[in-house]
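User: quick one, fold this
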Amino acid sequence: MINKKNRILLVDDDTRILQMIQRILEVEDYEVSTAESGEAALSIFNEVDPSLVLLELLLPDMEGIEVCRYIRQFSKIPILIVTAKGTIDEKVKGLNLGADDYITKPFSAQELVARIAAAIRRSNFQKNPIPDMLIKCRGGLKIDLTKKLVTLRKEIVDLSSTEYRILAFLAMNRNRVVSTEQILAAIWGDMPQNNAHILQVNISRLRDKLKDDLKGNRYIETKTGIGYYMTCKEVKR
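Assistant:
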């Protein structure tokens, strides 16, 4: 059963959908707060400090994308977009603004619960300390796996939680190829099969933020048909 401390903020202007999802989550022992507009969602978010936000994109007063953008200004809480707008452009837009996952209506209760549980597990994992480990690569890239801090030429690289997890996984397996399936399983756990496109988007964003191809440095390479690998010529500590 789920720890009662895990509160979900559910945002949807369809009362029927809102009640249905609320019942599903309460059966799983989540505490659920609901909002039917973007303004209400932001107000409730500040009051209840949820563990995860389930966010519909189509809201009566503002785009759900704007709610996502606002939350990301000060919080790395998992955001799962739940919407009937299932085009690739909409998915990429939501992910680029910091959403962690995307599920398209209609969906099964089983899939929804699994994705929520996986997102919260990943979030909780990031809060737990791991053995002291500092990876330094030529070109000025440093990945501190203890502090969960990435710097490039002494400047902090602002990564989403998903981007950081992918980079950390590649760094811990640096200089060897890891398959797409291995990355998906490590990052998305129980529901890897629907996240291949999300992985591609996050890899692209990581390359931009690490300034790959500039000054002769390239950290993330693609092995066509297999997966990815991180090239890291380590420097002395």
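User: anything notable?
Assistant: The longest strand covers residues 7-11.
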